[in-house]
Write a structure and sequence with these properties.
2 strands; two-stranded antiparallel sheet; 68% helix
C-alpha cells in the first residue's frame, strides 16, 4: 500500500469511531432526545460567562435564571463575582444559594456575606432583600 492509502485506512475508522461516540444521545429534561453534539444558545452564553467574564452574557443568563430557575446558576454567579470581580454578581450568588430547596447554616451564612457585599456595592435589589430578611 502506498503512504496516502495507508493513512486513509487508519484515519477513516478512527473518524467513524469519534463520530459514533460524540453522536451518543441523551434525554432532555422534557424527555426529548438531545444529541451531545448539539450546541445551544444557552451553552454559548454560559461559555462566554465562564471563559471571558462577559457581562452581557451574564446579565442574559441572570435574566433567564430569574424567570425560570431551571438550572444551577450558582457556579456562573460565583465565577463572575470571584474571578472577574463583577459586583452585580454578588447579589446573584446570594439569590442562587437562597433559592435552593435545602440550605444549611454554612451556605446561609455565605449567602448573607454575598448579600452584604452587594449592599456595599449599592445594589438596590440587595438592599430590599436585606430589609425582607431582617423582617423574618
Amino acid at each position: 500500500m502506498n503512504g496516502k492509502l495507508k493513512r486513509y485506512v487508519l484515519i477513516v475508522p478512527f473518524l467513524i469511531y469519534i463520530i459514533a461516540c460524540t453522536k451518543e444521545t441523551m434525554l432532555n429534561n422534557d424527555g426529548t432526545e438531545l444529541s451531545k453534539m448539539t450546541h445551544t444558545a444557552l451553552d454559548s452564553i454560559k461559555f462566554a460567562v465562564v471563559e471571558f467574564g462577559d457581562t452581557n452574557s451574564f446579565n442574559k443568563l441572570a435574566s433567564l435564571y430569574m424567570e425560570k430557575k431551571d438550572f444551577n446558576f450558582y457556579p456562573y454567579a460565583l465565577v463572575m463575582a470571584k474571578w472577574y470581580g463583577y459586583k452585580k454578581a454578588d447579589y446573584y450568588v446570594y439569590r442562587s444559594l437562597m433559592d435552593r430547596d435545602t440550605i444549611d447554616t454554612h451556605l446561609r451564612n455565605m449567602a448573607i456575606v454575598y448579600l452584604q457585599r452587594a449592599i456595599e456595592n449599592g445594589d438596590t435589589t440587595a438592599m430590599l432583600e436585606m430589609h425582607k430578611y431582617k423582617k423574618r
